[in-house]
């Protein structure tokens, strides 16, 4: 698929915004997917190309959070691998099954995330009593990974909110671990979409440059400002994704 040079530049600039959002609260696909469709990409190519730029954003964010000492890679890597396996399974399955049911359920889940973040006194940077151990959280990580490969919107929000609510992590550390897990799910999805020839590489690489730039800015802001920045963005992104999915359901 031939892409005009000016479109590569415009989409790279759009990716700066999506990278910022993904690094702090997730939901960059809320902006990138409509932009890719508007640029003329068929839905499957848009999905694959979006993953190719999203992996750049989540990787850059993960590196910045790790440098700040917010990621325990050695202890969390197994959860990341479970999320990767779940995403690979979801990416394969989505090519066989309709996503209509998820389109009905996900708005309710995202609304729940937004309400929890908005109303819970625990959505800050203090540690709390964990309801699930690391092993206990493993099925949750795998399920969210599967969801990301199968459908995707709000994955970062789900990872962050469940780690605060179930593992008792502070919001900034939960967001850092969410980037690790989301990076792993994106790796799996990119491999599957690339194998199926569903990525426009020129556009994906151009967007990746913009996404890495936005992610570098966003993750540094998040490390510096913590929950004061992450909490309102997480609420805003969750509500925006909810509205977008509900609109798409009624419009469709």
Automatic annotation (TrEMBL):
Cited InterPro entries: TM_pro_TauE-like (IPR002781), TSUP (IPR052017)
Transmembrane segments: 78-94, 101-119, 187-217, 229-250
GO CC annotation: plasma membrane
Keyword list, A-Z: Cell membrane, Membrane, Transmembrane, Transmembrane helix, Transport
Main location: membrane
Membrane topology: Multi-pass membrane protein
A Pfam family assignment: TauE
Entry similarity comment: Belongs to the 4-toluene sulfonate uptake permease (TSUP) (TC 2.A.102) family.
Protein name, entry field: Probable membrane transporter protein
